[in-house]
């Protein structure tokens, strides 16, 4: 996971130790939700809410993983088994509260895109 820290990228020690920086997704097809955002200067409650949303998303049926980066603009990509799983996450009560706080406090602007992943490939140096 990546956290905002005075316009620099900082990596959590847990993510570095567990190699969670690139999500381990199954063979396609699956779905990606791309959340691109610009933050306001308000930080109060943001980190705690982001941590809670990650923990909560991991418990949702159909959740496959996520990746996140921020340096100026933030981008989080979460991966899901189905459109139904994405919709259930969108209307999950705590997530809806976080979305409203995001609109009122933390985000200057954002855009969400939902895509079907038809193909993926990668490389990992061992």
From TrEMBL:
Lineage of the organism: Bacteria, Pseudomonadati, Bacteroidota, Cytophagia, Cytophagales
Protein name (database record): Heme-degrading monooxygenase HmoA
Keyword terms: Monooxygenase, Oxidoreductase
Keyword Oxidoreductase set for record: yes
Molecular function (Gene Ontology), one example: monooxygenase activity
Superkingdom to which the source organism belongs: Bacteria
Signal peptide: none
């Amino acid at each position: 996971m990546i956290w905002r820290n005075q316009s620099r990228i900082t990596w959590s020690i847990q993510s570095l130790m567990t190699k969670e920086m690139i999500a381990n997704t199954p063979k396609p097809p699956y779905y990606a939700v791309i959340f691109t955002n610009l933050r306001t200067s308000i930080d109060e409650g943001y980190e705690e809410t982001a941590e809670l949303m990650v923990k909560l998303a991991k418990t949702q049926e159909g959740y496959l993983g996520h990746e996140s980066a921020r340096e100026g603009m933030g981008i989080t990509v979460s991966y899901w088994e189905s459109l139904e799983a994405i919709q259930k996450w969108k209307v999950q009560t705590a997530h809806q509260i976080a979305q409203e706080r995001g609109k009122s406090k933390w985000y200057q602007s954002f855009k969400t895109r939902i895509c079907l992943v038809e193909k993926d490939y990668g490389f990992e140096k061992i």
